[in-house]
Amino acid sequence: MRLLDIGAVIDRERNIQRAGPKTKVMEQLDDETAKYAILSHRWGTEVNHDEMTGLMKMDEQDRNEVKQRDGYQKIIKSCEQAARDGYTWLWIDTCCINKDSSAELSEAINSMYRWYRNAQRCYVYLYDVEESAFPTEQDFTKFDGSNGWPEWFSRGWTLQELIAPKEVEFFNKTWVSIGTKQELTSTLEDITRIPSEVLQDGQVLSSTYSWERPSVARVMSWAADRKTTRVEDRAYSLMGLFGVNMPLLYGEGSRSFQRLQLEIIRVSSDHSIFAWNPKGQLGYIGNILADDPSCFRGCHDIERVYDFDFVDTLRSYMRQDILGRTIDRVKLMLLRRRARSLPLSRWDVTNLGIQVTLPVLSDRDIPSRFAAILPCLDRDGNLITINLASIGDSIRKYWLHGDYNGCPEFRSLYLPFSRHTGQSHFDLRLDDSRTSWYGFTRCGSFPREVAGDTVRFSAQGHTLTVLVYANNDTGSRFAVGLGYYLHKVRAGFYCDEYPSNPEAWSSWTGFAKQAYDTLWNAPSHGYAPQLLWARRICVLF
Length: 541
Known about the structure:
The chain is α+β, with helices and mostly antiparallel strands. Helices cover about 30% and strands about 20% of the residues. It has 17 helices and 20 strands. It has a 7-stranded mixed sheet, sandwiched between helices. Strands 8, 9, 10, 11, 12, 13 and 14 form a 7-stranded antiparallel sheet that branches. A 4-stranded antiparallel sheet has the order 16-18-19-20, with helices on one face. Helix 1 crosses helix 4 (about 70-85) and helix 13 packs antiparallel against helix 14 (about 330-340).
């Protein structure tokens, strides 16, 4: 890895007039042996590799322009802090990677988790925190666009940058230390939903004991609401968390996330990777693999059941009539005997799909429909099922519940993972002009930005977008949720009373998040009675 020579950077800055064009500020070192600090931050106006190494080759005007950037000051402040802490080397992603080299960029992204893990200390710079204390409560007034917390917590890449390093120290806008990861573990767990044991020791993710590792679905859920500038980076930023590597193909779009899941499947036998969208909030999807980390929203409590416990857990649930049927004792004995002879942990990725062996419940009325029982438990301790349907030669995933037979049978299934080859998205024209008749204006949208009068949906039904409208004169506001379910555009409406706290009213993003959570968990059909008034004043399509 290429590291900044802290002493050389500081000396060049202090003696800029005497520094020559050949002043060297970087060295190539081995991350396994070098003792270095590392920076994690939100990008702004940054300084790249060529500008940092060639600063003294510029004319004075260009050099001054670079030095005045926030990104340059961030480099200097980081170096000064690292020097005070006794470090010689520092790594910063903006200037320590030559991004003109695709090979170097690929190597850096595939190595980044390891680089953060091997750093002696990670400095987290929170540019939007001005106070001398770490924020412990959501503040939608200060952090309007990032769910009430500093923006750093909403970004995709910073997830691994929080987990991987053992020592993490947070700094505010003026580089005042406001706490360490160890000191702030409880608050960080509240913000990120990452368990304290993972925050305190990221090595848990790569433990040789599988029962110590969080489920794949749970790890994915930590990234569900995070954003990246490039869609491909939603997948690339998660590689290190799962201990996998893959080539970078910028331009492939959301297909990168499918490749990530296939890489995880090749090194893992964790069935929770199929347990996304656990409550069926999203619409009909043919693919067994999720299209985006947001599909794992709500999976933060999913736990694995291991082979040696799965059959007993399954028998226990069947015996207790959890799945709605009384089961013959002889069938339970046969089920257990059959399970012990099957390779439940063996998966094969083939041209026909992902081959797995799972217990299956058949639909009494429609033979082509069945439910596969996953060796995973939800937050209530119930086994998770996924509904499947045989269509031609393939099996598709869907969320219409059937009338299933009471006793499962183990079957070898080929679950398709090829992407939909038709239209990848479609646009809906939004007409909300009538809201202005009642004094309402559109404040914004969550979690995706809606520009103008067009709302874009994934053709695979993974989209829920909330638009917020407010009338400041009357203190009224409501939200409209637009989603795609069972091949149709559906709308849900949400409103609340005028909040007693004026600051809460001034922030529409907090209300949008609340509406999003409510509509996400609401049934896919019908409207709650208290929400009907919004239908009458807002004609959208």
